[in-house]
Amino acid sequence: MYSWTDSVYNTTPTKEKVTVDKTKGAAFTLAWTTVDQGNPDDAPISIGTVAFQDTSAGLINTDWSSTAPPGAFPMLCATVSRCGNSLASTFYNVIWGGRVPVLPAPLLADTSWTSSGGAANDVASSSRYAGAELVSVPAFKTPVLASKVRSDITQAGGALGDPYGSGVRTIWWVYGVGPVKIVFEHAGGMGAPVTTAVLQSTNQKVKTSPSDANYFPLKKGLKTRYSWTNTKYMKKPSVQEFVVDQVVNGSARVSVKSVSGPIKTAGAYGFTSRTDGVTNVWGTTQAASLAKFPKLGPKGLTASKRRHFFTPFDLMTYGFNPLFPAYPEAQATWDGKDSGRDFQIYGATGKATILGVQTVRVPAGTFAALAVRTTLSQPGFRFGSGVRTSWFAPGKGLVKLVFKHRDGSTSTVELLK
User: Fold this and answer.
1) What is the pLDDT of residue 104?
2) Distance, CA of 337 to CA of 81 (rounded, Å)
């Protein structure tokens, strides 16, 4: 049960009963009604449904329908006839301007995203995860820990009710429950309306939310510089700089260029952050190298199609995905299979294990970093086999990597700044 008010257009709290109408796989539909909920006679009447789907990228809104909004509310379309927009209910305030995704997953520190919505797709939002905080709502006897999401929303396209469709919305999400509080501060200056919705009661139980530590931030503009050496083949460091230069809803392009050393290289990599972990989806580099490394496999590919170690990220992504799960826990393991896309590219099998958080000292500083150990076997290629340990620090990403190759050499990568 929710109740919602608008400081100008609906000043008396209106109760809405929300139930799960139907489910199918990862899709579900919620239904709401204000009828027979003890509301005043002059309260807005609203009956509707809103459909969602859980995806690896987060929660998306797939459909909605309801009775028309009250006539006294601002018109959120350019014409009166056949207007499919409304903000006269709790969940309309949740999906307004942000349908794909409504809420991304995994939800980690520094996560930001853009989205759009409205019947004419003329409502845009820019959202960010503002961290976890305690919030008090009538549904729970004590304050509950919630994920706070702030969205800057703009409606364009000549809506008659503009600027009511624009403003700043804050939603508090509780793990295992959903949205428990929504505050939408509409545009319009002094005296502009504020819509507030609050969870009054629920049969859902609060769950302990996973850590929001972001061990591989895909944040536009993030720069890192690394030193890479190998005890046999490259004793003089190759120094390279990486920058996250494009980010779209949990996917990012990371570019690399040489700074100094025996390898002259330029290239880019694509990564995604999803509920199944941080994954490298593509990579391309060009290089001229004075360092002569042993060849890599697999045997099934021609020499021109085999991968090379030109950058620290080549060492980091080599083998199989993911780099680590979305919410890594100590002793969690996953295997590199002898089939699938990664095997076709690398021809390596093995096993990865989360060792836990360890203290790591590198030139850039001292970090409490997530340690991931991976054993790798590439038949016929000793340089492509061995044990790799990677350390990832919150807000930084990779800070150190040690690859003990089976040919007796060791590659070491350290974050310089």
Assistant:
1) 96
2) 57
User: 24: which residues sit within 8 A by CB, 6+ positions away?
Assistant: none
- Rounded distance between C-alpha atoms, residue 166 and residue 168, angstroms: 7
Predicted pLDDT at 305: 86
Buried b (16+ CB within 10 A) or exposed e, 294-304: eebbbeeeeee
DSSP track, 303-372 = GGGS----SHHHHHHSSSS-SB-SS--TT-EEEE-SSSHHHHHH--EEEEEEEEEEEEEETTEEEEEEEE
Task: Tell me which amino acid residue 357 is.
Answer: V
Q: What is the pLDDT of residues 37-55, one digit of tens each?
A: 999 998 999 999 999 999 9
For the chain, the average pLDDT equals 95
For residues 373 and 39, give the distance between their C-alpha atoms in angstroms, rounded to a whole number: 59
- Say whether pLDDT at 159 is over 80: no
Element holding 64 (H helix, E strand)? strand 58-66
How many CA atoms lie less than 13 Å away from 44 in the CB half-sphere?
Answer: 29
- pLDDT one-digit tens code per residue, 247-296: 998 999 999 999 999 999 999 999 999 999 999 999 999 999 999 999 99
CB atoms within 10 A of CB 405: 24
Give the separation between CA 407 and CA 382, rounded to whole angstroms.
5
Q: How many helices (H) and strands (E) does the chain have?
A: 3, 23
Question: Phi and psi at residue 319, in whole multiples of 5°?
Answer: 115, -85
Contact 16, 2 (CB under 8 A): yes
Terminal alpha carbon distance of the chain? 50
Both tokens of 206, joined, read 């609060």
Q: What is the pLDDT of residue 49?
A: 97
Question: Is residue 18 over pLDDT 90?
Answer: yes
